[in-house]
Amino acid sequence: MHEFKFIDNELCCERVRVSDIAKNVDTPFYLYSHKTLIDHYMKLKAAFRSIKPLICFSVKSNSNLAVLRALVKKDAGLDIVSGGELYRASLAGANPKRIVYAGVGKKQGEIRDAIKFGIHFFNVESEEEIRAIQGIARELNKKVNVAIRINPDVIPKTHSHIATGKGDTKFGLDFETAHKIFNSRWQYPNLDIKGLHIHIGSQILDARPFQEAIGKVLSFLKQNHIEAEYLNIGGGLGIVYAMEHPQTADHFAKNILPILKKTRLKIILEPGRFISGPSGILVTRVIYTKRTPRRNFLIVDSGMNDLLRPSLYAAYHKIVPVKSAEYDSSDLERVDVVGPICETGDFLAKDRLLSQAKSGDLLAVMGAGAYGFTMSSNYNSRPRGAEVMVIGARFHIVRRREAYKDLVRGETIPKALR
Ligand code: LLP
């Protein structure tokens, strides 16, 4: 459930009409519902209340400061993957003791900053990385918590680009190498290697691959008599984009709690999409309609630079007219919704049956709160749109639309070329 609903044929976000926001904010813009965001975080928290896990929202799914702040205020932790995300976490007022840091390519400076900030865990993905963290921790004279990210070699049913728990991906360590690290803890006097981490992929609709991966990790611990205190089971919960029937937070918890409760491990979760995905839409305006002998196009003012998911993963996002009364439902036509970018792959939807639209109409691309703005770019020198958050009956611009000046920020023409 989310807070984007039609009231009197007008799409509303909580108690605000989307078209009213569009009168004040130029399109395209991302629009977030504060209530939906918090509701989804709370759903997970409630489903797992019997074990009180640390829930670290995955910043990469939506890193807007207002989004992070809203969740941090509800006591959420954060899952970060870069120095930039650490910077955002600090600006959002996150408690360092609720931050976990994954990623295969942490640079020395990033590791140093995270240690100084006092984060809860590094999720380590290679032997060289653990040696690097040890070296920097010694230099800083700090003791640092480390979890070994395991690649459990399971195959979740999802797009190949977002399946991370298969043995041939770059993520995590195989069981043998992990064992070797646990056996040589003495080599890392500044590290407390007391956790295991898995993240098997994203947009996973059922609990089986999670059960399989957690089962593998737990038998690894048991067989090798390894003492650990924490298990981070990653993110990956799927949401509804089209006709999927993803597991609810309660189903997910019901399916994996029995396994987790057999252990005394403290549990960490890293959901991103489940919380931010349903909480955001992309609002865009039809610039032109174009009918050709082969296809009909709605050319809108946002494209792959604003929302890359359709182009990159052939991802489906539902598209709805913001004012449905403008449309006669008997007047459906099959269209491609395309952006202004000069690439054939620039589309938001293909072969979609939509009510006939005309230039100037507003459309909403649903389920765009996760991996929407965070994956946007300035390709074709298009300024990124605003981000707006509705809280109850009011909307707030939480990132202003970029100006042309922003496009060239940091660029210089060398003297030799003047
Ligand atoms: N933890 C780790 C270590 C991750 O790499 C990710 C996502 C998450 C947690 C959060 O996963 P979630 O709960 O959001 O599924 N750009 C793609 C998704 C990439 C996911 C990358 N890792 C998309 O638009 O579908």
TL;DR?
This protein is an alpha/beta fold.
How would the blueprint of this fold be written?
Blueprint: E1 4-7, E2 10-13, E3 16-17, H1 18-24, E4 29-33, H2 34-47, E5 54-58, H3 65-73, E6 77-80, H4 83-91, E7 99-101, H5 108-117, E8 121-124, H6 127-140, E9 144-149, H7 175-183, E10 191-197, H8 208-223, E11 230-232, H9 249-261, E12 266-269, H10 273-276, E13 280-291, E14 296-300, H11 309-313, E15 319-321, E16 332-338, E17 347-355, E18 362-365, E19 386-391, E20 394-399, H12 404-407
Helix pairs in contact: 2-9, 5-6, 8-9
The site of ligand LLP has 21 residues, from helix 10.
Please tell me what the overall shape is. Answer: globular
| CATH classification class of the largest domain | Alpha Beta
- Unreliable residue stretches: none
Question: Roughly how much helix do the residues carry, as a percent range?
Answer: 25-40%
**Largest sheet, if any?**
9 strands, mixed
Number of domains: 2
Strand portion = 15-25%
User: Pairing-aware structural class of the strands and helices?
Assistant: alpha/beta
Ligands and ions found? ligand LLP
Radius of gyration over C-alpha positions, nearest whole angstrom: 23 Å
CATH architecture of the largest domain: Alpha-Beta Barrel
CATH topology term of the largest domain: TIM Barrel
